[in-house]
Amino acid sequence: MANRLAHSTSPYLQQHADNPVDWYEWGPEAFEEARRRDVPLLVSTGYAACHWCHVMAHESFDDPATAEQMNRDFVCVKVDREERPDVDAVHMQATAALTGHGGWPMTTFCTPDGRIFYAGTYFPPTPHPKVPSFRQLLAAIADAWGQRREEIERSGTTIAEQLGRNSVQLPEGAAAPGEERLAHAVRVLAAGEDRERGGFGDAPKFPPSVLLEFLLRHAARTGSVHAVQMVQRTLRAMASGGLYDQVAGGFARYAVDAAWVVPHFEKMLYDNALLARVYLHAWRLTRSPQFRRVALETCEWMLAELRTPQGAFASSLDADTPVPQPDGTTRAVEGATYVWTPQQLVDVLGGEDGIWTAVLTRVTEVGTFEHGTSTLQMSRDVDGGPDTQRWARIRPLLAEARAHRPQPGRDDKVVAAWNGLAIAALAEAGALLERPDLLEAARTAADFVVRVHLEETADGWLRRVSRDGAVGEPAGVLEDHGDLAEGLLALHAATGERRWFDVARRLLDAVLEHFTAPGGGFYDVAAHRADPGLLAARGPDGGRPQDPTDGATPSGWAASAGALLTMGRLTGEARYSEAAEAALGVVDALAARDPRFVGWGLAVAEALRDGPVEVAVVGAAGDPAADALHRTALAGTAPGIVVSRGEPGTTEPALLAQRPLVDGAAAAYVCRGFVCQAPTTSVEELAAAVGARLE
Question: pLDDT tens for residues 238-291?
């Protein structure tokens, strides 16, 4: 019989609906039951595309004896980290503090009020030399709860106090990163760059999207050849390696090796949205055909594989592929959809093309992955070289053959923040690459998220997730507001449509009212949406969680700062700009220690350092001259450039107000802080002012 997770909006939680474990979702009901029974909470956190989450589920949560032990001694709570990033962040902080590392699945044990007293990640079904079995752990925790309760209570209090002391403290008089700090960040990144293989550091390697955006903005502002070369080396390496799906487009979550050969095969919306945008921006600066192709293919992959029937975007594709077995069962196999042998290439393409493709894509008899299979890597340039047409003919044949293989599962919940990232990428790609279909996809996704996720109340509260067109319970956190506002402002810039500006302003007003911390910066959750269980986990002085550091995505702190900076320049209202600048003080302090963790904040600081440039394009709808000026403004490489387009007489945004035509012709006004140069009707003059490269 299905447990109570069967009614969840989370596909990850629904994967556990048939476990014999009596799972609860995170919420008051679970805490009340723990208090009633006087037992600890066992909190298991993961996500749908997580390979080791599936492994632990099969080994332990599907096992009746293990489930009986869990149900007897604990109240068991399943958390989708993508639905509840606030829960995940606090519990991961405790796990990292207690074990020295983190990861998923994450297993934490709490007192009935929410204080964490023990934490770990994956536990096997049988003991290993340094790791107990899961059932041994359960028995030890239950025994300690029964026999040494005071010790556990003290441990929970100590951990809560430690987490509370980790609250963000803005240095007194902190200011946004200045010229020397930004240059220092570039030097630190250069020292950690893998110049031979691209990227930063050693294996495993994650795509450093936000750091690359910072470096692109720095290069555009300062002319730093060194910064743009770092970007080019990393983008080329990732695009040529196994991290990138050479057949269908799109990037995997990370590479397990230092040379980007073997990916962890899950594909996430947020990675691909961020990477599509950074490849697009790199093309905008360098005009590399490879960067243009990869940006476009990644956008097309998002539409083909992650678009929901409602027009929004699903969260991810699974790392594993369910492969049918001879006995009628299925077995989860990593990469089964994607990898090839030389013989498989010959079977699909014929002898001559199959052998040529194996050489081109480094598919060998020994293999680069498992069991003699290989990921596809590009050994030569296919962007304008002699192999271009042949690869263009072969690629669809491989895609067709691959479509007949078993396919990975899809987590089809819609996350507001990640859809905001996708909207930004699609809107900009559609406008810059003259692909109306991508621009329309951005509009459709934005319409869905605004219509379904944004409650029609005075506060306009944002919900984080939906599925099948129905909104879920979790409230939108800071990153949802910041990333969605960023996406809507990019869509406004690309289309000139006021609706998206208005909704973005509504979201950012909510950030200022409900998320702003005293002294500058932000909390991750709104004041009246703070979770009692998380407050208890952080102790009496911890307050609401805050995290200004980037993870796989920009921190909510930095995303909100960036959107607020843009809003301030569109409206001329100091409250937005001042909040953005105040938030960047912690970025300066953190960048002094390690800029890798504040890439988006540094990118926002580059925009602030440059102004950012504001461009108002005034002209009639459909006027070719206005269209040309608008495209040129969007092609500007000035960091964080703010663009708005409207007809004469437009009053909102304020950047457009009282901007007349010039001698009856469409005109562009280039400004900083609403102090404007003389208007121009010349595409060439505008391009020079905003750093746009004309074809």
Answer: 999 999 999 999 999 999 999 999 999 999 999 999 999 999 999 999 999 999
Give the span between the Cα atoms of 277 and 600, in whole angstroms. 13
Of the listed ranges 66-75, 167-176, 459-468, the one predicted with least confidence: 167-176
Helices and strands, counts by H and E, the chain: 25, 18
Closest CA to 77 of 131, 4, 176: 4
More confident position, 140 or 3: 140
Q: Please give the angle made by the CA atoms of 7, 418 and 55, to the nearest 5 degrees.
A: 55
Q: At what angle do helices 342-349 and 351-360 cross, to 10 degrees?
A: 140
Q: How many CB atoms lie within 10 A of CB 519?
A: 12
Residue 330, beta-bridge partner list: 324
Q: Are 258 and 242 in contact (CB under 8 A)?
A: no
Cβ partners under 8 Å of residue 365, min gap 6: 341, 342, 372
Is residue 132 reached through a cis peptide bond, with omega within 30 degrees of 0 on the bond before it?
no
The answer to whether the Cα torsion of 47, 269, 445, 504 is positive or negative is positive
Under 8 Å between Cβ of 584 and 591? no
Distance CA 490, CA 494 (A): 6
Sheet holding 470-471, edge to edge: 267-268, 314-317, 410-415, 465-467, 470-471
Question: 3-state class of 431 per DSSP?
Answer: helix
Q: Are 615 and 668 in contact (CB under 8 A)?
A: yes
The pLDDT tens digits for 592-611 are 999 999 999 999 999 999 99
How far is the C-alpha of 494 from the C-alpha of 675, rounded, in Å?
23
Assigned token pair, 595: 């800029």
DSSP string, 312-367: SBEEEE-SEEEEE-TTS-EEEEETTTT-B-HHHHHHHH-HHHHHHHHHHTT--SS-
* pLDDT at residue 332 in the model: 87
CB 530 within 8 A of CB 544: yes
Structural Rg of the chain based on CA atoms: 26
CA distance 38 to 112: 7
Interatomic CA distance for residues 680 and 627, integer angstroms: 14
642-659 residue pLDDT tens: 999 999 999 999 999 999
Dihedrals phi, psi of 479, to nearest 5 degrees? -65, -30
Of 83, 45, 15, 85, nearest to 318 by C-alpha is: 15
Give the pLDDT band of residue 565 (cuts 50, 70, 90): very high
Cβ-Cβ contacts under 8 Å for 356 (sequence gap 6 or more): 390
For residue 406 the two structure tokens come to: 């078993």
Residue 288 one-letter amino acid: S
pTM to 2 decimal places: 0.94
- Alpha helices (runs of H) in 384-497, residue ranges in sequence order: 388-403, 416-432, 436-448, 478-495
Judge contact between 672 and 607, C-beta under 8 A. Answer: no
Asked if residue 458 has pLDDT above 70, the reply is no
- Inter-residue contact 392 to 386 (CB < 8 Å): no
Kind plus residue range of the DSSP H or E element containing 162: helix 149-165
Buried b (16+ CB within 10 A) or exposed e, 450-465: bebbbeeeeeebbbbb
Phi, psi at 130, each rounded to 5°? -115, 5
Specify the pairing of strand 675-676 against strand 667-672.
antiparallel
Cα end-to-end span (Å), the chain: 63
Q: Using 50, 70 and 90 to split pLDDT, how confident is the model at 460? A: low
Confidence of residue 19 (pLDDT cuts 50, 70, 90): very high
CA distance 393 to 369: 26
Q: How far apart are CA 221 and CA 215, in angstroms?
A: 10
